[in-house]
Predict the 3D structure of the following.
Amino acid sequence: GEDVEQSLFLSVREGDSSVINCTYTDSSSTYLYWYKQEPGAGLQLLTYIFSNMDMKQDQRLTVLLNKKDKHLSLRIADTQTGDSAIYFCAETSRDTGRRALTFGSGTRLQVQP
Amino acid sequence: GAVVSQHPSWVICKSGTSVKIECRSLDFQATTMFWYRQFPKQSLMLMATSNEGSKATYEQGVEKDKFLINHASLTLSTLTVTSAHPEDSSFYICSAEGTSYGEQFFGPGTRLTVL
């Protein structure tokens, strides 16, 4: 079945770049997502990438996909204290026909002033 | 953008009572909605897929008689936790499926505390 894994915690200083990593199970038609969850709140979609892409950039966010290693990363440039949250990687695949998302365990990003 | 609401945002109930949580798509129609559960400091786990006009599809290990799902219209799905117990205390999040494959819009979540 599908499996998504993430490191649990990342601490950076304000102004530095943050890189959050994720690994996923292989599929030829996979959609991969990054969500942000602040304490006590729901999920905010940050960005997504399809498996036929290598990179996607949106303002301070850069997503890199290494299909060979089944590795996805989210880079946040110029990290701010407001970026402190839990970041979830999630996937869904056309091949399985499963439309629900499979989430990773989440990475808690702590930004120190 | 597409907006999904949940009501209530939080609820505290006594053990043995039933609690109904609503999930609404406010500005679009959703044939399919999903219900997820999130325990403290854990990830989201899919509980069931809610299909308008038909029975919900439950994930393995989720009791369908305990977590009743009704998707009676294209904008509303409800989750009823029957005979709630403290171990049911969790954060319940719904999502509504968009028109593109994999597109989901999440509600803000409902925190359930069972005393």
User: Anything to note?
Assistant: The longest strand of chain A covers residues 85-93. Chain A touches chain B through 21 residues (CB under 8 Å).
